[in-house]
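From: lab user (bench 3)
To: helpdesk
Subject: output format question, protein + phosphoric acid mono(formamide)ester

Hello, I'm new to running complex predictions and I'm not sure whether the block I got back is the full result or only part of it. Here's what I submitted:
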Amino acid sequence: MTRHFLVDTDLTPDEQASVLDLAASLKADRFSRRPLAGPQTVGVVFDKTSTRTRVSFATGVSDLGGSPLIINPGESQLGHKESIADSARVFSRMLAAVVWRTYEQAGLEEMAEHSTVPVVNGLSDDYHPCQILADLLTLREHFGDLAGRTLAYVGDAANNMANSYLLGCATAGMHVRVAGPEGYLPREDVVAAARERAGATGGSVLVTTDAREALAGADAVVTDTWVSMGQESEKAERTEIFAAYSVTAEAMALAAQDAVFLHCLPAYRGLEVAAEVIDGPASLVWDEAENRLHAQKALLTFLLDSSGLSADLPAALRREETR
Ligand code: CP
Ligand code: NVA
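Helpdesk reply: Thanks, we reran it on our side. This is the complete output you should expect:
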């Protein structure tokens, strides 16, 4: 069966933990796995712009013995001149995996439905699960165990990062709190899925409009831009709506004394985060950015292994069909 990673809960708690273990071992020994030996090609398709996702997947695929094919916005027929299903069928004949940054989650689901190779969500309007793996790796490096730790997300609580923190941190057995203004809170189905996961892992979920309630005693404080890709025309309005949710030094003071700060980047200093926080001693954002590389290499290795498509597998364990 082909394994995909479209949303954080596509990995079970045990699988997420083993991907993070593998990420740590790949960070320590960068070229120790070669599931893409050949070199096999991984398509990395962008409908939106990117720095970290592009660089980390391009580098990671090469590290794993493969060759990345970056397709920039507007460069392929996908989704406009050709259906997602037909593109998926073509990709599956040549590529070892597809990473896709796009708008609608439904597009990723359609791609996965018609793909015989792993499909990875490189960010959609709803989720950014690769980023959460990198964040969890960063927190694990800093605190050791994730289970029982509290993460507070403050800002646009209806965006892809908030959703993925809810699902990914609940999967890790963390206590996850998200705070945002009325009208900018996560969808009920996302909260319900996070609560279900938290029920199985010993974590918990809190959704509130009160930033202070979310921040109180938290081990990790996180935020994201108030204006996600595709929302640029709402910038002025959003800047006003979210002003009370800025992560300032005063906000950090409400968290635990040894609390750390994370941000997926790109960051807007003076808006969602104060410069003294993101550039200060509590900030782990550069480790977090680097960890995209290690976490995604582990994810790709896991997906290829468990789909029977890894060049590292003995021939007898490899899937019959050839590309
Ligand atoms: N954090 C993140 O996904 O960054 P890019 O948009 O630069 O890929
Ligand atoms: N919420 C942001 C994340 C960028 C990595 C966006 O979607 O633009």
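A quick orientation on your result: The chain has twelve helices and nine strands. Let us know if anything else is unclear.
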